[in-house]
Design brief:
This protein is an alpha/beta fold and 267 residues long. It is built from nine helices and ten strands. A hairpin with a 4-residue loop joins strand 8 and strand 9.
Length: 267
């Protein structure tokens, strides 16, 4: 397994600083979730007009793009809304292809009031199959995160079972299933063979903490992932963009990186 961090944790760094700090702190990859608080990556120059310069900088620094993170959601009963989210996801998949990122993160979304969960699962599966077909043509997988109304491994597995596409899997955000009462062993059983990317964070389920200072059993999670054959990225998702009073990335990123390397040496 390799380590990465999401740019969600450093919303005020420009792209050059992001890459420089990744190398300085010993990370191997980046999850691109916005640059300078622009979270639609089709509007980020380094992902579009200046992509060649950005790729050159990454190559010279030995840093890979581990994941491209989109904001697309597919649980709406509004078909036009789902189509627009599919379009947005495809545009982010094109960016992933250009940067040789293996996957694009998407969300399920929240279940609208008055809509049955099973109906939302059907909406999501339809959209995800379309994205899976698109991904098969460009070599990019789609990863549905444990998030929103689909925080549990059990809930993600229900959608992925209906989707039934080899190019569609999951992002295991280790925080959300635990926060909602699902033990890590259950999450792993539900997501076994489907995990494409992992979000690492720690906390007491009221606030985020540095790694090892909260209630997330990260080392046990890494052992479960290893036993399941996972060899992708462990991506620190430090939610600084959404929670401004978190410690600065200059503190959190080196600490998480060092602790993750320590854990990986013992699994």
């Amino acid at each position: 397994m390799k380590i990465a961090f999401s740019t969600l944790g450093c919303p005020d760094w420009d792209f050059e600083t992001v890459v420089k700090r990744a190398k300085e702190y010993g990370y191997e990859g980046l999850e691109i979730r916005g640059i300078l608080r622009q979270f639609d990556l089709t509007k980020v120059p380094e992902m579009t007009d200046k992509a060649e310069q950005a790729k050159k900088l990454l190559q010279e620094s030995g840093i890979a793009v581990a994941c491209i993170s989109a904001s697309s959601r597919f649980s709406s009963q509004d078909e036009d809304n789902r189509k627009e989210n599919v379009r947005s996801a495809k545009s982010h998949m094109d960016i992933a292809k250009n940067f040789k990122a293996p996957c694009v993160r998407v969300f399920g979304g929240n279940i609208p009031e008055g809509v049955e969960r099973e109906r939302c699962e059907d909406y999501m599966a339809e959209s995800l199959r379309e994205l899976g077909d698109y991904g098969a043509g460009i070599g990019v997988k789609v990863a549905l995160e444990t998030h929103d109304s689909f925080c549990l491994g059990k809930e993600i597995a229900a959608v992925l079972g209906k989707t039934n596409h080899p190019m569609v899997g999951s992002v295991w955000d280790v925080y959300h299933p635990l926060r909602n009462g699902e033990p890590i062993e259950q999450t792993m059983r539900f997501l076994s063979g489907w995990v494409l990317h992992v979000h690492i964070k720690d906390g007491d389920f009221k606030k985020h903490t540095l790694l090892g200072e909260g209630k997330v059993p990260t080392l046990d999670i890494l052992k479960l992932l290893k036993d399941d054959g996972y060899n992708g990225y462990l991506s620190l998702e430090w939610e600084k963009a959404w929670i401004p009073d978190l410690p600065e990335p200059e503190e959190a990123f080196p600490q998480y990186g060092a602790k993750l390397r320590e854990y990986l040496r013992s699994v």
